[in-house]
Structure formats: structure tokens, C-alpha cells
Amino acid sequence: MDFVITILEQGLIYGILALGVYITYKILDFPDLTADGSFPLGAAVSAALITKGINPYLTLLAAFAAGVVAGICTGLIHVKGKVRDLLSGIIMMTALWTINLRIAGTSNVPLFSKETIFKNSMTEKIFTGGASSYSTLIIVLILAVIAKLLLDFYMNSKSGFLLRAVGDNDKLVTALAKDEGNVKILGLAIANGLIALSGSIFCQEERVFEISMGTGAIVIGLASVIIGTSIFRNLTFVKSTTAVIIGSVLYKACTAVAMRNFEPQDMKFITAALFLIVLLISMERKRKVKTHA
Amino acid sequence: MKKVNALKAAGAFFMAAVMTAGSTSMVFAEDENYVIGIEQFAEHGSLDNCREGFLEGLKEEGIEEGKNLTVEYKNAAADMGTAGQISDNFVSSKVDLICSIATPSAQSAYNAAMEKGIPVIYTAVTDPVAAELADEDGNSVGEVTGTSDKLPVEQQLEMIRKMLPDAKTIGILYTTSEANSESAIKEYEALADKYDFTIETAGITQTSEIPLAAQGLLDKVDCLTNLTDNTVVSSLPTILEMANEKNIPVFGSEIEQVKIGCLAAEGLDYVALGKQTGKMAAQVLKGEKKASELPYETIEDASFYVNEKVAENLGIEVPEELSSTAAESFTEIIESTEE
Amino acid sequence: MLELKNIYKYYNPGTVNEMCLFKDFNLTVKEGEFVSVVGSNGSGKTSMLNIICGSIPVESGKIILDGKDITREKEFRRNRRIGRVYQNPALGTCPSMTILENMSLADNKGMKYGLGRGINKGRVDFYRDLLRPLNLGLEDKMHVKVGSLSGGQRQAMALLMSTMTPIEFLILDEHTAALDPKTADIIMELTDKLVKEKHLTTIMVTHNLRYAVEYGNRLLMMHQGEAVIDCAGAEKEALGIDHILAKFNEISIECGN
Asked: Are A162 and C114 within 8 A, CB to CB?
């Protein structure tokens, strides 16, 4: 049972990361590698603020804001600097390594003795007795659901429609008299805000900030998005946002099971194989209708 | 449609596998059979020595693999995410004790085991206080304790001064992501003046940056010294080759490094460190003491190791007072024993 | 209403391939005019459209819309008052969004795209009423993704969407060229209807001489950056296809084609 709970916890935390990657990869069609830098950015901001005694729940907002700034930077590099999408993300990801180190102060910031969103005077009062072993799961579930609902609300707004349009046909956005560059920057900002938020939650759950914790974040996010959207492609009642969170849980389940039966060194290969299998099974590959009807 | 069905079946199968895997993974303890999960953060000689010593220490206290001990060993290959998953795995299989080798593994094990009552014994954690595994007085913060491989910085500086009476600058190569390296460098810089040295450092983020960083450093210094930095130590052969071309001696931090070509080291015996850890673990397993009651321990004595062949190649004479007290003296350079 | 004044446009300036397309080009389009533009490939028809819209810059000259100098205005800003339909039906709509969503998007042009609900439930009937006269059955497919529609259906949608909100100028860039003859006819009829209903000043570039003659009240034939035919009103009515073809051959021989 513990095993399942851990999978759900990790899956839901990374599910928020998946929501961010969903925006850039699926909606904007922008392969954004900033994630490897913005995930630990959220963690660094939270760790630094918590060490200074700031309320851990407020640090979630600060982490989101930091992610938004990172996304805006990537967007500016791409739109104003006219640098390719992939490279813009790589530039930001590299710069963020140094920025994160400076924000956190050092490469390893432990939070064992500090209050986090999972362990503070309030949670101690609410979760007593048997419920305490589920406290992390419940809190993470609430956060993931809130993030998902907020994103759904946004995607159904006029601004959200414009975001979907810019990834589909940016010429139409220009025809609608809106600056498509600005719309892309907004999308990147929201996405990286979510990714940084996810990093903050992860860091508080692990109770330590490690500078290298972002390596591979984009891979996990992509895997979750692809698994989620492929499996639920034909079930229209499942919204995409829900699908990618479930995809994240499934991905974590598979890696956890693989970890039991294989050596950690083999894990990356197994991840790649899993990824490939899912892509092949969902044969109806997305038709990229960019410039032909 | 067929493919979607196949996919749904695959998905269901996976979930079923997860469920069954989860429930059948509990290892049953029969007749005092202890189950220990060992998680090691990275692959290299020093950490391997710790593991060896750990098992030896347990053996000396009567807990032996094959007799009354089952060991599950997993290596995180220097990946933090993997370390977390290994810790979670050990906790959900309800092992009796987790042994963590190196700081990131220790922290993730402590986090996973914190509320589950599984004790964590660590080793090769340079600064348990900074890692918040122990408080300032050295007492444990929970069911976690172990041994620290704090570098004998002062002894190293003293030794280098004796070996190279005319040297002025010491170079240190380190990885920016290793917190242990940062604190060690601070100590070096604080004590360097006392022995008339200045410290030059070069930081890298990954293995591929080592050749260039080392080149730059070697141009400015009289000798190099190593920390317990995992990435740098794993690339030691490369660094030694470059240093030898310029006839610059490299001082190690541990016996394995001297074997493969470092001039000398005031080193810790990692096997002995591991043994000490094993003994602590035995106490906890047998119920004699709880992990929270044991403050962390260090090995006080650094021993002098020297490689005569290297000294010969560099044209350096090893002072009598050192060679006579050497714990071990090597007369040849062994090819790297890395796995 | 629209003036192009002393336009100079060079392609690949400063290189071996330098080519001057427009040299002191002038054009005035009066309000309410429906201009058909024909010409050989490379004559500058599409470049002229792009210059008006702002997709490409000019070396010198002025573009004046309704008395306002928009030469320096960015493309997306100009589009406030301009509607544009492209030759490629895919460029006028969003394939992954439904008909309803596309129309909602277009309906909001000129207003703020904030956090208000993307779909205005009260307008759905209005959209249906717009789609019904097309006789394409689209009003019953409001929740179908546009990407699965045919080229003609998408072009019809593009036309509707570009004229849904009040605009002053409609630019049609060979918008029937990629359609089969029957669908092209339907789209042209729709175009004519919309232009007359909304009194839109229109520039239509086309390769189809029949359309150029039948629709619109002014005809322009472009050649090497100049207008070689420019007639309006009664003069245009009197024009026949043969006349235009003759002119085509004339200039082709001149160029040595």
C-alpha cells in the first residue's frame, strides 16, 4: 500500500510539471527545455525563503512567479532575439543552473528542520492518528486538482483560446490583430510558472534542495504528456489536463515497478523503451496541419 | 480501434503488475533474518570501500550475509531522482535498516524513512550538520546516524608543506553541485595562510568540463589536491595524465587515489570508516541502541599514504619523518581499479 | 481611402540578385471599390498585398489608410481594420479547434482577449445564422474540429471569420485558387454577397480572368511592378476576357516569353 501511495504522491507532483509541459509541447508546439532549469528554480526559491522563515505556502506563489519570469525570458529570447525555440530553452536552462545556485546559496539546502507545506503546526492539528500517513498525498492531491481546475478555467477563456490559436496557426492570431509573439511569451510564462510550482512542491516533499534535481525534468514531463494524451485520445470525456496528470502517475508507476526488477543503471533505457512503445501503440500520430490543408 | 483496445489492455496489465509487485515485495523476516537496503550514490573506489567495510563491520558483530542477513544493494549512478526512488523502494519493502553511502542518498533515505520507523545509518557524509542530519552538538535529529568522512584538511596542508617546501599555490578542482566540496574549500581557504599557501579553485558542472578546467588550473599552480568530490575523483586518471605532463604533483584524499598515481595523501581509510559504520548498524539492529541515541562518529586519525614511484617520476624526495610513519607506501602505479 | 505613394521596393538589395520590383509605384483605392488584380507571376500582385498589410517592408514610400499613415505600423496592428483571406485554406482557421471556437475567436477581434469566457453562449445562434446561408451544413457541425473540414468549407469559414467584425478593407489573396471550380464559384458568390452587404472596400488578386471580369467594379493588371491596365466603372463593364488575354500576350512578347 505504501508503494501505491508513493507512486500517487510522485505522480501528482510531477503531474503539475506535466501540465506545464502540456502547454508548451502540445498547445504551443514549442519544445521547451527551460523546464530542466525552471523546475529547480521553484525549488531554490522555496528553499531559500523557507530557510529565512517565510510561510511555506507563500513560497509556492513565489516559486510560480519565479517560473513565470523564467518563461518570459525564454520567450523574449525567442521572439525578440529570433532564436529558435529549442535553443532558447537550452540557453535559459543553462543560465538557470548558475541562477539557482545563487538563489539557494549552495548546492544542497536541507529542510529537515524547517516547516514545509506538508509539515507545520496546521497540518499537525488536522492530520492526527492514522490520517497522518496520508497527509502528504491529500495535500498534493488538493494542489494538483487546484492547478488543473485553474488551468481549465484559463484554457476556456478568450486568452486561452488565443493561446491555442497561436500554436495551431499563428498567422490567424496576427489576422486577429494580436501580437503573436506576446501570446507565445504568455504561454511560456504560464507553463514555466506551473513547472516551477511543481519543483517547489517536490523540494518540500523531499525536504532538500539539490542543484541537480532538475536534470531530466523535461523528459519526465514529455513522457507524462505523451502517455496521458495517447491513452485517453479517444475518450473525449476525459479532459486533456486530467489525462496528462494520470499519464504522470502511470509513468511513475512504470518506473517504480521497473526499479524493483532492474538495476538503476538500466532505468534510462527502460524509460526510453516504454516511451517508444506508447508512441507506437497510439498509431494515429497527430497530423501536423501547418501549411497544407 | 484494435490498437486502442490493445493499449487499454496494456495499461490495465501495467496497473495489475504494479499492484502485485507492491504487495509481494515485502520480504519476510524469519528467525532473526535481518534485511538491509544499501543505497550508494555513485560508483567509485572510496564509496565501494565504505560498503565493503560496512559489511565487514557487521560480520564482526555476528551479522553475516548468507547466515542471518539479506542485503539489497542499489546504486543511484549519481542521479538524484534515482536516489529518491531507491529510498522509496526500500521503505515500502519494509527493510530493517537502510545504509546510505554519501550525502544525497543519506538525505533521501532519511526523508523517505522519517515517519516509517526504519533507521538510517549513513557513511561518507562529509558534513552531517550542514546536511541537517545531525544538530550542532552532533546529536541525531531522528532515527538517523552514521559516520562522517570529514577531510583532514589541516593535516593535508601540513603534509604538503613538508613534501614541497617551496610550493606557493595549491589548486583544487571541484564540482559546483557537491555541497561537501564547497565546505571543504572554505576550510582550505581558512587554513591555507597558516602554512603559507594560496588556494586556486576551478569549478565544473560535469565530467566533460574537466580537461579544460584542469588545463587552466595547472597553468597557475604548483600542485593539486583532491577533495572527496565524486565527479572529480572518478576522472582522476585524466587529471593525473595532464598533471604529469607538466610535472605537477597531485595530492589525493584517500588511499585508492595514491595507488593509481597521486603522490601522497593524508587520507581516511574508507574501509575502516565503513567498518565503524557497520558496528553502529549492528547495535541498532540488535536493539542495543536506537539510532536517535547515537551521535555521529568520525575517524580522527588520518594516515599518510605515499607512492614512491610517483615521487621518483616527479623528482621529489619524501622527507624521512613522513616516510617512516607512512601507513602504506606504494612502489608502483597501479592501473585504475575503477569498475 | 487607401493610398500607396511613391513606393520603392527592392528584393535582395545589395546582392547579385538585387531586383527592383516597385519603382515609384502609386495607387489610390476609393472607398467602396472592389478591385480585381490580375497579372503574370512575379508582376507584384501579391507583393502589393503584402506591402499593404505590412507583411513585408518597403524601402521608401507611404501607405495611407483613411488619411492615416500606416507605413510604420506593425502588421498585427494594421489588421484591426483589415481582413485577409489567403490562398491556402489552412491559414484562415485553427484546425484543432471547433467551428464554434473558431467563430468565437473571430467574433472577439478588436476587443480584449482576457479571462472572459471564450465562448459566448448567447451568440451561438448568431453564428448558426451566419453559417446557414452557405448551404454547406456547417451550422449542424458546430462542435466539429475545423481540421476535418474540406478546403472549400474552411475557406468559407475563413471568409466569414475575416468579415465578422467591422473592417474597412478586405484583402483576398487568390483565395479561390486552391479550390475546385464548383467550390470556387460558391466562394466567389459568398464573397460578392459579403462585400455588397457590408460595403467593404476590397482588393482581390486572382488568376481567374473570368472572376476578374465578372466581379468587382475596377480592374488592375500588373506587370513588372506597374499597372498596365486600370479601368473602372463602365469601362470595366465593357471589358471582355479576350481583351485581357490580348494584353497578356502583348506584354509577354515584349518580355520575350
From this structure: no
A291–C91 C-beta distance less than 8 A: yes
Residues B174 and B289 in one domain: no
Which residues from A are below 8 Å from B207, CB to CB? none
The whole-angstrom separation of Cα C214 and Cα C222 is: 18
Beta bridge partners of residue C196, listed in sequence order: none
CB of B265 closer than 8 Å to CB of B252: yes
Name which of C52, C96, C111, C148 to mutate to probe chain A: the one with the most chain A Cβ atoms within 10 A of its Cβ.
C96
Task: Find the CATH number of the domain harbouring B160.
Answer: 3.40.50.2300
How many structural domains compose chain B? Answer: 2
**pLDDT in the model for residue A64:** 97
Question: Over its length of 339 residues, how does chain B's per-residue pLDDT go in tens digits?
Answer: 444 454 554 544 554 444 444 444 444 444 578 899 999 988 777 888 899 999 999 999 988 888 889 999 999 887 788 888 899 889 988 899 999 998 889 999 999 998 788 999 999 888 888 888 888 888 888 899 999 988 888 889 988 998 888 889 999 999 887 778 888 898 899 999 899 899 999 998 888 889 989 989 999 999 999 988 878 888 888 899 899 888 999 999 888 888 888 998 888 888 889 999 999 999 999 888 888 888 888 887 788 888 988 888 888 888 888 888 888 888 888 765 443
d(CA A61, CA B266): 48
Q: What is the pLDDT of residues C179-231, one digit of tens each?
A: 888 889 989 999 999 999 988 999 999 988 888 888 888 888 888 888 888 88
Question: Residue A5: which of A184, A135, A194 has the closest Cα?
Answer: A135
Tell me the whole-structure pTM to 2 decimals: 0.84
B169 shares its domain with B127: no
The answer to whether residues B199 and B256 belong to one domain is yes
Whether B133 and B50 share a structural domain = yes
The domain of B94 spans: 27-150+271-298
* Residue B73 β-bridge partners: B38
Put simply, whether A265 touches B (Cβ < 8 Å) is yes
Same domain, B204 and B138: no
Say which residues have a Cβ less than 8 Å from residue A250's Cβ, sequence separation at least 6.
Answer: A11, A224, A227, A228, A231, B11, B14, B15
Tens digits of per-residue pLDDT, A18-74?
A: 999 999 999 999 999 999 999 999 999 999 999 999 999 999 999 999 999 999 999
Is B257 found in the same domain as B140? no
Contact A162 C113 (CB under 8 A): yes
Q: Alpha helices, DSSP H only, in chain C? A: 45-53, 75-78, 99-107, 124-131, 151-163, 181-198, 209-214, 233-238, 241-255
Nearest to A176 among C89, C106, C118 (CB): C106
Instruction: Give the number of A-C residue pairs with CB atoms closer than 8 Å.
Output: 95
Which string of b and e fits A197-210 if b means at least 16 CB within 10 Å? bbbbbbbbbbbbbb
User: Are C105 and A176 inside 8 Å of each other by CB?
Assistant: yes
Query: Which C positions 177-216 lie with beta carbon below 8 A of chain A?
Result: 178
Judging contacts by C-beta atoms under 8 Å, the chain C residues touching residue A159 are 113-115
For A179, nearest residue in chain C (alpha carbons): C76
CB contact under 8 A, A293 and C178: yes
Q: Is C115 an 8 Å CB contact of chain A?
A: yes
Which of A7, A206, A280 to probe the B interface (max B CBs under 10 A)? A206
ipTM score = 0.86
Q: Which residues lie below 8 Å from residue A63, measured CB to CB, with a gap of 6+? A: A41, A42, A43, A45, A46, A196, A197, A199, A200
How far apart, in whole angstroms, are the C-alpha atoms of residue A182 and residue A216?
28
Set out the domains of chain C in order of their start, with CATH numbers: 2-93+150-255 (3.40.50.300)
Q: What is the pLDDT of residues C67-105, one digit of tens each?
A: 888 888 888 988 988 999 998 988 999 999 999 999 999
